[in-house]
Amino acid sequence: MSSFLRLLLLVCLLTAGCNTDEGKDATPKASAQGGRGGADASPKDASSAKASQVDSVDLLFVMDKSVWNRRNQKAVRDELGRLIQVLSSGDRDPSDGVVEKQDFTPAKSLHLAVVSSNLGLPMIAARDNIDARNCVGVGDDGKFLSVPHETIEGSRGTPLGCEDSYPAFLNFTAGDDVQSISTDFQCIAGIGPVGCGFEQQLEAGLKALWPAKRYKDLDNAFNQFGDGKVKAPVVFLGESETVGGNGDSTEQAGFLRGAPYYVPASSAEEAGMSVLAVVFVSEEDDCSIGALGNMDLLVSSNSAKLPAFLKNPADKASKVNLRCFYDNELPEDQQYRYPVERYIAGFKSLRGVGAERLTVFGALVGVPVDAIKDNLDSDGDGEVSDAEANSYFDSILNHPMMQQVEDPTSGGGKGGYLRDACRTENPDYDASAAENMPEAYPYLMSAEPGVRFVQVAAAFGKNGVVRSVCEEKFTKAMDQIIDAIVANFPKE
Length: 492
Known about the structure:
Blueprint: H1 3-14, E1 56-63, H2 69-89, E2 109-116, E3 170-173, H3 178-188, H4 201-209, H5 216-226, E4 236-237, E5 242-243, E6 275-281, H6 323-326, H7 341-349, E7 359-365, H8 386-397, H9 410-413, E8 422-425, E9 443-447, H10 451-458, E10 464-468, H11 475-486
Parallel strand pairs: 1-2, 1-6, 6-7, 7-10
Antiparallel strand pairs: 2-3, 4-5, 8-9
Helix pairs in contact: 2-3, 2-11, 5-7, 8-10
């Protein structure tokens, strides 16, 4: 070995390696709160993983907190056991009793987590807060939820017997008890019905996964996927200033494998790349705010910070449920909501340039049921192409009921709400029932057009999944999400 090479090797050893990434020295250690175990480990470089070797899934559900979404939460929980069983067995129909062959290579490992859409109303003083009771501070703050908020019933209507709390995310490895992990996941998915009515679903999902530290590779990927419309750094609105995300926090750093900040949840866990699947469940469109560095769009009607465009006509400011809709009236560079490109770039960047195919974006949102297709393979070649997927998304966005307009019959004939994209009739409806009772509502579900979700999904092509939240069951939705995930697994 030459003297130069010896010197170079010595320098590398003394500096802990020649390929150190930004933020690596401050990456938090995993703890028992962040998974099943807490071994110290160094983050791995995501760019070294190959898509053909992926056999793990990191699955994040982002769910609304509202009375309406209690029904949605249960519909999701009813499917979680089957979802886990199918992914871990490779058998698309585990109930048919046929076990001789697998339909696809099963996942060897699953990470499972839940966050709520509740990010509160930060940077708004109490006197200006439009909902000081439910929209306090940063809400659930994009942190993984691990405490069941109510008695959780299983698919047969019996209580599941949930524990008081769980790890921040669940870790399933091939050979583990499927029923046990399914029950645990159903329990943490019971996030309850009370939360801020101004849902920031996309922002909550991104904040849960994006790190507080800056990483050069992440910033570069974000800028590339942002295509000039959004640029790094990615920051979030905090109580009084912008802050980083939670992806590299002690509790959440072990969730997303292959991320530059990733710390394995246990010494036995491999640190390769995973398929990242982010699934949103909501009856309202996304209202992620912060593009102008404040949340003034959502201040109370008598606040001195109320934007001028909401003062004319006079009743505009009082229609608080249309505030995010009114944001569309402003020029794009003056809108309070973040552009959807922030989330397209963000979720793709978490897998990296060249590995963006490992992100699956799912949305069970306000879409007309008659706009939904179970099979997107229009040419019958056995595969769904990006072109076929994009044609599908275009047809949804162009559907008459997906056009966002105020419903003049809402609010007791005074308006103030968007026209529904879909509704599910309540067979037990009783007009004389007491308010807040399930039978007091004519619909089990009504949902406004989830336009922003469909726009984001379209950017993921065949890795985007959109279904209607008004469907009676979410079985077909989960099947399409499974298909999108396993399409990235090794072929046998």
